[in-house]
Amino acid sequence: MLNATWLETFTTLAETGHFTRAAQRLNMTQPGVSQHLRKLEAQLGQSLIAQDGKSFSLTPAGEAVRALGQARRDEERRLREAIATDSPDAGEVRIACSGSFATLLYPRILALLETAPDLTAHLEAAPQAAIKRGLLEGAFDLGILDHDPGHPRLEAEHLGEEELCLVLPVRDAGAEVTFEALEARGFVAHPDGFAHADELLPLNFPEAYQGADRLRVRTYVNQIGQILDPVARGIGYTLLPRSGVEAYAQRDLLAVIPLQRPRRHGLWLTSRKGRPLSARLMRMQRLAQEAAAALG
User: Fold this and answer.
1) Residue 57 domain boundaries
2) pTM for the full model?
3) 165, 180, 196, 223: which has the highest count of C-beta atoms within 10 A?
4) Residues in a beta bridge with 238
């Protein structure tokens, strides 16, 4: 890489067009300016100026190096401005959470973006292990996990909990639910559905439930926004965290069935330890807190 000090000296020399004025601006001696020029030319293997008596002109290589020096100055100025101005309405935010919670959080993010045109938000729905890995590798600024990761390089704030819901069409609200009745209807499966089934169903149907691999699957869909469509149409039942249910556009077509032994997932807002949150990340933190509070 080019020596930054020599590059700045040359850029100032090119701007002033005079060794003495360049030395005065840089608080250097004129021989010092000449020395930096020679060292930079030696590093590049090119002459940067063509002298004519006491004046000089830039060679083509000198013109290119001056342009680079000015670009470096602009980059540094923008960096200093970004550091000095910690605006909640500007910059980039990268956040990851479950697909269900994303359906509840994303509308809040969109409402924020409408009022903050200089803010960029990346929301990724990802499995728990991928969220944790992304936080450690710096791919995500914030992550929402269903547990306190207990990792020495991560810190977590408990936002609350959300229920893992057994969801049926609204016409079945209030009806007694047996495992046999669920099997007759059929399971609307999705990427997390089988793990949810192994969590919730053996707690409530211990005699009848024989494992997720034995469920009668009526349909499978891997798009979070479409998982509840078959249920709303009366085609089957499914299992989803409360956030996915509450964010569904046709919520009035669904019934969350009360169970004797409910199962709840934690909501933990997680970030890298020792890295103070910027104003924009603190604003995103508040949106996550509001979304979690909406779950009761």
Assistant:
1) 4-84
2) 0.67
3) 165
4) 167
